[in-house]
Specification:
By secondary structure, the protein is of the alpha+beta class. The chain is built from two helices and three strands, in the order ββααβ. The chain has helices at residues 21-28, 40-49, and strands at residues 2-5, 12-16, 54-57.
Length: 65
């Protein structure tokens, strides 16, 4: 599980679930081509008015699935 959030207000901006976190991070940030789920436009728009973006990761072992 991962989240993007506003560091000033602590507002949750996006909450996601992924089994391949590095791959999903690359997709969201436009580092690799992906047909959907790319958050690059939203992230870039956020940085027009903010200096920092919060990112939190909660890892869970596969045995818990």
């Amino acid at each position: 599980m991962y989240a993007y959030w506003d560091r000033e207000t602590h507002e949750l901006l996006y909450l996601g679930l992924a089994s391949d976190l590095p791959g999903r991070f690359a997709q969201h940030n436009g580092l690799v081509k992906h047909s959907g789920g790319n958050k690059t436009k939203e992230i870039n728009a956020y940085f027009t008015d903010h200096e920092h973006l919060g990112f939190t990761v909660l890892l869970q072992g596969k045995a818990i699935e």
